[in-house]
Amino acid sequence: MKVAAKDRLVLKVGIVGCGKIADSHAAQVKRILGCEIVGVCDRELLMAQQLAERFSIKGSYRDVTELLADARPDVVHITTPPQSHYDIANTCLEWGCHVYVEKPFTVDVSEAERLITLAERKGLKITVGHDDQFRPAARRMRALVRTGYLGDGPVHMESYYCYEIARGEYAGALLGDKQHWVRRLPGKLLHNIISHGVARIAEFLTTDSPDVIAYGFTSPLLRDMGESEIIDELRVIIAEEQRATAYFTFSSQMKPSLHQFRVYGSKNGLVLDQDQETLITLRGKKLKSYAETFVAPAIMADQYLKGLFTNFRLFAARDFHMKAGMKYLIEAFYQAIVEGAPDPIPHHEILRTTRIMDAIFVQLQWPATKIGSHGHTLAEPMSRHGVAV
To answer: Based on C-alpha coordinates, what's the Rg of the chain?
Structure first.
C-alpha cells in the first residue's frame, strides 16, 4: 500500500511486549511515513529499554497504564503471549486506543467477542496479526476471487500450515521447559501457530460456526523425545451445511514443509504458495485430446515464470521482504483509523477463526466430542485411553 506524501498518516504508536516479534512490528511501523513509536512496554523493563534503544524510541515502560498515561499513543500493538491479550487490549480500548493484536487474537471466542463488542461500542479499530493474508501473492488471490474467477464462490478449500519443530530456539525452549507459557494454552503449540492457516479458510466461509471434525496426535519424533503433551500433527475437516467444505493440515513432520492454500470453485481453482510467493490459476475445463498432456504443462510453466518476474519486480521496488504482509496490514489498519474505513480484517472473520480453533481444541482435549452448529449430539468427554470421564 503506497501512501502519498500529502496523505501521510499521523499516528502515535505504542508496543506492549518486547520479545522477538516486537522487533518486526517496530521495523514495519518505522517504514510508514508520519508514524512515530512513542513508547514500548514490557514487564521486564530491560527488554523494553533494549527495544527502545534498537529503534530510537523515546519511552520505555514496565506498566501498560504508565505507557498509556505518559506516552498517549493513538494505537497500541500487543505482542505478548496470548493469555494476556484480552486484559491488555481491554485496558487499551478503555483508554481510547485502537488496538492491533498479534495472533492468536485471544485464548477463546468469549474473550474475542467481548473485545470486539467494546471496540465497536467505543468506535475504535481492532485487528489481529494475520499478516500472511496480506502478502503480495495473497492479495492477488483475493482480488482474483472477487472478480468471480472461481465461479459462485469456493466449493472446497485446502489449507496447509507446517512447522519444523526440530529447528529454532522457540521449539527448543518449548520442548525443554515444562512450564513454558505455550503449554498453558488450551491448544498448546497448535494454539500459537495454526491461526494463520485457519484464517485463510475462515475468510471464504459464509457460516459463522461451521461444523468441525478434528484429529490430532503427538508425532513419533516427539514421543521418542519423551514428549506426551504437545500435539504436532493435526488434520481437520470443516464444513458448511450444503455449502463449502475445507481440509486443514498442520504437520511438523511432512516434507516438503508447506504453507499453501488451495481453493476450488464451480468454474476454476487457485493455488497460493506462500513459500514460493506464487499464485497459480487452475483451469476448470480440460483441454481436448493430447493438448491437456502437452499444452497444459506449458501453461503451468509460464505461470511460474511470470511469478518469478513479479517477485523480481517487487524485490527491485523494495516491496518484497519476509514481513511485507505485516507492513501492508499495519498500513491498511492505520489508514482505516485515519479515514474511518472498515478494518482490513472484518470482525466476523476474526470471530469465525477463533470459533474454529475453539472447536478444534475441545476435540483434542476430548477425542470423542463432536462439535457442530446444527444440533449434533455431543458425546461424553473421553480420557486419553477412551474411558468416559
So the answer is: 22
Three-class SS of 2-15: CCCHHHCCCEEEEE
Spans in the chain with pLDDT lower than 50: 1-6, 367-389
Q: Is 235 exposed, middle or buried (0-12, 13-18, 19+ CB in 10 A)?
A: middle
Q: Round to whole Å and give the CA distance between 350 and 372.
A: 19
Terminal alpha carbon distance of the chain:
53
Please give the full DSSP string across 78-144, using - where no structure is assigned: E-S-GGGHHHHHHHHHHTT-EEEEPSS--SSHHHHHHHHHHHHHHT--EEE--GGGGSHHHHHHHHH
**Residue 383 has what pLDDT?**
32
Q: Which of 341, 279, 344 is nearest to 130 (CA)?
A: 344
Phi and psi of 17, rounded to 5°? 105, 110
Amino acid at 367: P
CB–CB of 227/221 below 8 Å? no
- Please give the model's pTM, rounded to 2 decimal places: 0.89
pLDDT (0 to 100) of residue 9: 62
pLDDT of residue 373: 42
What is d(CA 267, CA 154) in angstroms, rounded to the nearest whole number?
Answer: 10
Identity of residue 139:
R
The residues, ordered by sequence, that sit 6+ positions from 267 with a Cβ below 8 Å of its Cβ are: 149, 150, 151, 284
Q: Are 271 and 182 in contact (CB under 8 A)?
A: no
Spatial separation of the C-alpha atoms in residues 76 and 85, rounded to whole Å: 12
256: which DSSP letter? S
> Using CA atoms, how far apart are residues 101 and 84, in angstroms rounded to an integer?
11
Q: Is the dihedral of CA 325, 94, 355, 350 positive or negative?
A: negative
Domains and their CATH numbers in the chain: 5-130 (3.40.50.720), 133-328 (3.30.360.10)
